[in-house]
Amino acid sequence: MSTNGAGSGRKGLVLAAMIFAVAMTFIDQTIVSIAAPTIQTKLGLSGTGMQWAINAYLLAMAALFAFGGRLSDTLGHRRTVIAGVIIFAGASALCGATPTGALAQSWIITFRALQGLGGAVMYPAALAIVVNTYELRERGKALALFFGIAGGLTAVGPILGGYLTQWTWRGIFWVNIPVALVALVLIWMSKPETRFRPAPIDYRGLVLIASGVALSVFGFQQSHVWGWSNPAIGLSIAAGALLLVLFFRYERGRTSPLMDVRIFSNRAFAVQCLVLGLCMAVFLPMFFFASEYASISLGQNAQQAGLTLLYFFGGFVVTAQIGGRMLDRVGAKRPVVAGAVIAAAGFYLWASRMTDLDLSKLTWFIVLAGAGMGLMISPSNTDAVNRASSLSYGEATGITMTVRNYASSLSLAVLGTVLISVFQSRLADTFAQEPHTTRAQADAMAAAATHGSSSGGSGSGGTVPRPIALDFAHAAQVVFYIMAGLMAVAAVVALVGLRGGVQAPEAESESAAEGVQTA
Question: Looking at residues 131-153, what average pLDDT do you find?
């Protein structure tokens, strides 16, 4: 049951405040990768150090989302989102102020991790405020706008990063400060009120889930650097998985758990988490691989690659609004199933024409893939959160965001391995056709050429020989066919697992309301 604490006249203001708050987290998912070469040169960072300046943010956020969700439900959503905005903006300012010299590498990695903490605290609280502000029948439309704009900002990162870097690389961090100030002013003006229940924080559970997610994601992130044959990768992922199993077992016996794992007994919530996992295994990796394809196969620079991805978000933003209205009118099943089917078709057709090396033949398929994703993501996420008690919206958001980030990390590692493997094989075939080149020499040349080829961010758009551009296009094509398959699986899961119809509002019991506060 929504508290509707902001009042009908202020709902739009509350929504705007929360969009500005989370805008920083979405922009920062992609903006730093574009400026990475400049940052590395200016600060004298090692390749590993620069990689961790990127990964520390994503790793901290993934590991702490569950904590952020629980914190917002126990301390109050408004004060938690304010704290998250301040932490994020402060860490951004300090990242931008990174000194040159020996201290630079540890400084920027530390404060990038602090940015991740701010995002993990802020995002679940912001979404909980939006959900609490709108009644059940209005949430689809409101959250479609929330996810549509916030998701579209992922594409803004490369474009904005490219322009800011021409001024100074520090600007990619400092740009968060005015956004944070606008968010804080809007929060002060709208004064959103939501209910919460003070409770002790389960720190043992926090250590288990944070360590489990961090170790697993670390293993996935490092797999393309160290290689899957390195035993440290398998040990890291296995240890993380074991800790997550222990966390699940530990939480079942707690009276005040960090995560009430019983929510997974709700069929709709569990199914939507699986759908979101499959969807996010495509969404964020798509950005990376599409940028690499645009750079290597199409010869685009970073700004051009970012503009190409706006085709995707053009379709995404429009259908996100349609999906939200469908959720309010007919429930989640139709938009989620239809969106997954459309996305599967879009990614399949996109993949089928990648080897033409012609952007004009891809444009409408890119739009179609974005339209499918936009139609389903908001209804799926909203329906999952709606299944929680009004006192647990932050916790439910923390769970869904943990699932989303975990799936993205796993998919990026696996698909990255597939991309490099196929690219290396085709390159070897190409090199072997050169006169006086043995197969062994061709294999060695291909291995050297592909080492670190997917190290992050799109390239500079320099001229790549057409045979090599075509070889990379074939590798990317395989990855995008897999993405189409994942979306097809998501469609089947939603079709079989979800029930049709609009969710009925659930009355809050008196016992559940004991100890509840409003702020």
Answer: 80
Any idea where the domains of the chain sit in the sequence? 1-200, 202-257, 264-503
Could you give phi then psi for residue 297, rounded to 5 degrees?
Answer: -90, -35
Q: Which residues of 44-63 are buried (b: 16+ CB within 10 A; e: fewer)?
A: ebeeebbbbbbbbbbbbbbb
- Quick one: which of 232, 111, 120 has its CA closest to 173? 111
Q: What is the value of pTM for the model shown?
A: 0.83
Q: Where are the beta strands (DSSP E) in 316-374?
A: none
* Paired tokens of 108: 């920027």
The answer to whether the Cα torsion of 246, 252, 258, 263 is positive or negative is positive
Amino acid 358 reads D
Q: What gap in Å lies between CA 384 and CA 370, rounded to an integer?
A: 21
Q: CA–CA separation, 123 vs 110, rounded Å?
A: 20
Residue 9 has pLDDT above 80, yes or no: no
Torsion, Cα 251 256 259 264, to 10 degrees, reads 80
Contact 158, 458 (CB under 8 A): yes
* Pure H helices in 230-266: 231-252
Nearest to 185 by CA among 295, 314, 82: 82
Q: Specify the 3-state DSSP secondary structure of 153.
A: helix
Whether the domain at 1-200 and the domain at 264-503 fall into the same CATH topology: yes
Place of tokens 């920062």: 28
The one-character DSSP state at 439 is H
Identify the residue whose tokens are 């094509």: 477
Residues near 135 by beta carbon (within 8 Å), at least 6 away in sequence: 2, 4, 505
- In whole angstroms, what is the distance from residue 316 CA to residue 302 CA? 21
Taking residue 480's Cβ as centre, other Cβ atoms within 10 Å add up to 25
Confidence of residue 64 (pLDDT cuts 50, 70, 90): confident
Q: Report the phi/psi class of residue 465: left, alpha or beta, with left for phi > 0 and alpha for psi in -120 to 50.
A: beta
Listed in sequence order, the residues at least 6 apart from 314 whose beta carbon sits closer than 8 Å to its beta carbon are 367, 370
Q: 264-503: which CATH architecture?
A: Up-down Bundle (1.20)
Helix then strand count (H, E) for the chain reads: 17, 2
| Residue pair 167/42 in contact by the 8 Å Cβ criterion | no
Which are the contacts of 39, defined by CB distance < 8 A and separation ≥ 6?
A: 32, 45, 50, 53, 108, 169
Instruction: Look up residue 277 and give its two tokens.
Output: 């996992």
49-63, 84-98, 109-123: the lowest-pLDDT one: 49-63
Instruction: Name which of 220, 208, 155 is nearest 406 in CA terms.
Output: 220
Q: Check: CATH 3.40.47.40 for 1-200? A: no
Q: At CA 416, angle to CA 413 and CA 418, rounded to 5? A: 115
How sure is the predictor about 509, in pLDDT bands with cuts at 50, 70 and 90?
A: very low
Could you tell me how far CA 455 lies from the centroid of its own chain?
A: 18
Angle between helix 203-226 and 393-432 (nearest 10):
10
Given pLDDT bands bounded at 50, 70 and 90, which one contains residue 88? Answer: very high
